[in-house]
Design brief:
The chain is mainly alpha-helical. The protein has one domain. 70% of the residues lie in helices and 8% in strands. The protein has 11 helices and 7 strands. The strands form 3 sheets. A 3-stranded mixed β-sheet has the order 5-7-6, with helices on both faces. A two-stranded antiparallel sheet has the order 1-4. Strand 2 and strand 3 form a beta hairpin.
Length: 305
Amino acid sequence: MTSLAVSFVLPWFAFALTWLALAPAAVLVHAVVRRPLAGVEPTQRAALLLALSLLPLAVAALVAVLGFAPAIGGLMVDGHCHPDTGCHPHVPSLHASILEATWLGILLALATCGVLWCIGRRLRRSLSLAGTLLRLAPRARREPFSIIEMDVPAAYCVGLLQPRIVVSRGLMARLTPLELNAVLAHEQAHAARFDNLRLWLAAVCLWPLSHSLRRALLRDLAAANDESCDLRAAALTSRLAVDGALACFEPRPGTAVQRRRSLTAAPADLSPTGVLALIVVSYALCTLPALDAAHYGAEFVLSWL
C-alpha cells in the first residue's frame, strides 16, 4: 500500500493541544498576579491583562512553528539519530496511506471549520448588537455621537474596527454639560484604544475555556479599560465631572466605588514591564523545554502506531 508523509496533522495537533493547555494556565497566572496587579496604573494593567489573554494562542502558534519547521524546530531538540534518517535536525513525521491521509484531512478540516464557526458566531453576535444599536440611534447633528431614544441613562462605544458612540436621551437629560463631556471623553477613549476589539480578541484566545473560567480575567480586563478611560476623561474635563457621571448611570455600586478610587489612587510600586517579562518568561520556560520531550513522545507514539 502506498504510504505518504502527512505533514499537516502533527502541527495541527501540537497547536490545538498547546492552546488547550495554556488557556487554563493563563487563568491560573491571572489568579496569582491579580492582587498585585490591582494597584498598577489602569492603562498598564489593561495591557498586561491583554497580553496574558493573547499568550495562549500566540504560544500555540509558536510551538507549531518551532516544533515542526525542519530548519527551526530541530534547534529546539537535543541532537539524536535514527537508523532511517541519520543524524541531523529533524521533526516528527506521520506516514499514512492515501485513504487514511484523506480521512485525516477531512476530520481536521471539519474541526478547523467548527472552531472558526464558533469564533465567527461570536463575531456575528457582536456585530449584530452593534448594528441594532446604531439603527436605533441616528447620529446627532454636528456631534460625534448618536442618540438613542431611551429614558434609562446609558452610553456605549459600539463596533470593533470603526467604533461609534451611542448616548441615551435619558443620560443627556440627567447630566450637566461638563459631566456629559466627561462621558463622551470616556467613550471616545474606548474608541481610540479599540477596547471592544481588545476584549473580543482576548475572548477568542481564551475560547477553549468555559465562560465561568475565563470570566474573571475578561472582567478585570474590561474594568482596567474602563478605569483607563476614566483617567483620560478626568484629564480632559475634571475628576468631579467623571465622578458625577459615574454616580448617574453606574448600575453596580461596588464597581463605581472602585472606579472612583482609581481616579485618585497612586499607582502601585510595581513594574508592569517586570510583570510582563515574568509572564512571558514563565510561558517560555514551561513551553520551549517541553518541545524536546514532545518530540521524543511523538516519535515513540508514531513508532508504536
